[in-house]
Amino acid sequence: MRTIELGLRNALGSPGNSERVTPAESACFTVLRLTGSRANRIGADVRHSRQWGMFEIGGSLREARLKRGLTPADVQKAIRIRDRYLQALEEERWEALPGDAYVKGFLRTYADYLGLDGNLYVDEYNNRYAHNDELPFVPERFARSRSRLGGGSLLRPAIAIGVIVAIVAAVAAWRLSGSSGNGKQAAPPASTATTTPTTPTKPKKKAKKREHHVVAALPSRAVLVASRGDCWLWIRSGSASGPTVYEATLTQGKRLPVDLRRGPVWIDVGDPPSLDVRLGGKLVTGLPKQAGNVLLTRTGLKPA
Q1: How confident is the model at residue 223 (pLDDT cuts 50, 70, 90)?
Q2: Strand pairing category for 265-269 and 231-237
Q3: DSSP readout, 201-242?
Q4: Could you tell me whether strands 282-284 and 275-279 are parallel, antiparallel, or unpaired per DSSP bridges?
Q5: How many CB atoms lie within 10 A of CB 94?
Q6: How high is the pLDDT of residue 161?
Q7: Side-by-side strand order, sheet with 265-269
Q8: Quick count: other Cβ atoms within 10 Å of Cβ 93?
Q9: For residue 232, with 0-12 CB atoms within 10 Å meaning exposed, 13-18 middle and 19 or more buried, which class applies?
Q10: DSSP notation for the chain
Q11: 9: which residues sit within 8 A by CB, 6+ positions away?
């Protein structure tokens, strides 16, 4: 635009020249100036409209909670999300949360509870902060058990060699004992002519056969499946006062393995109708109809 204006000035003459500028020429310069300023203003409006589409995730959550007169402790009791996680959401401190999958679950649950659109908050987080390459979160207890199982990979060859040597030694000993037993001939029993009085013998009672009851081994692992919808879970080891093993929203279609070798686990189930519990590959009954607590053992579910 500046180049066009300079070209017209050179062609028509500038106001500083000795020739006078006609009214038509003056109108041309005015139109050029107005057109240039209007183009700058439109560009600024476009940049402003791009920024206007974003909103504060944490600030809007805090404002909605305060309008309802709720404290973080009140919200924790209602949706089973710790207050420190709620404060991290309101302050947008994503590094204080377990990971992307749980941030999205917390955002959707918190926003829906406050009467907001949870999907809108998750979409805004995905556009601005989500990391698609993040590894899935594994509870610390399960990670330790995996490391213990995988740590003995160096000992496996040595154990296999020891088992083979023991089998070969047992076979050799069995053969040696069999050959030495065959070489010995048993002496015939001496026959003695003795007269013994004949006495009636009572029929012997048949010994009852002992029945061996085979007790099936109890399963040591259970699987929680969100079959019919998302389900909030809070799992503690042993009892309600034990250490936390898992605390998050299990999204629909996802599976969560639970190790029962060290004892039962206490589970706080947010939406029992959406959850299935499988023990040893079989579906287990005993979940409450509404949100509540259960104790999962190797024999099944018990109310807690």
Answers
A1: very high
A2: antiparallel
A3: PPPPPPPPPPP-PPPPPPP-EEEEEE-SS-EEEEEEESSTTS
A4: antiparallel
A5: 18
A6: 86
A7: 244-250, 231-237, 265-269, 292-296, 301-303
A8: 13
A9: buried
A10: -HHHHHHHHHHH--TTSSSPPPHHHHHHHHHHHHHHHHHHHHHHHHHHHHHHT---HHHHHHHHHHHTT--HHHHHHHH---HHHHHHHHTT-GGGSS-HHHHHHHHHHHHHHTTS-HHHHHHHHHHHT--TTPPPP--HHHHHHHHHHHGGGGHHHHHHHHHHHHHHHHHHHHHHHHHHHHHPPPPPPPP--------PPPPPPPPPPPP-PPPPPPP-EEEEEE-SS-EEEEEEESSTTSPEEEEEEE-TT-EEEEE-TT--EEEEES-GGGEEEEETTEEE----SSSEEEEE-SS-EEE-
A11: 29
Q: Please tell me the predicted confidence (pLDDT) of residue 269.
A: 92
Q: How far apart (Å, rounded) are the C-alpha atoms in residues 234 and 257?
A: 14
Nearest to 58 by CA among 134, 125, 131: 125
Position 204 scores a pLDDT of 62
CB contact at 8 A, 36 and 1: yes
Per-residue pLDDT at 172: 81
Q: Can you read off the two tokens belonging to residue 268?
A: 């706080």
CATH number, domain 57-128: 1.10.260.40
Distance separating alpha carbons of residues 231 and 252, to the nearest angstrom: 8
DSSP bridge pairs for 253: none
- Residue (of 100, 135, 111, 28) closest to 62 by Cα position: 111
The closest of 298, 271, 264 to 284, measured between CA atoms, is 298
Q: How confident is the model at residue 46 (pLDDT cuts 50, 70, 90)?
A: very low
- 99 compared with 9, residue with greater pLDDT: 99
Provide the token pair at 102.
């749980």
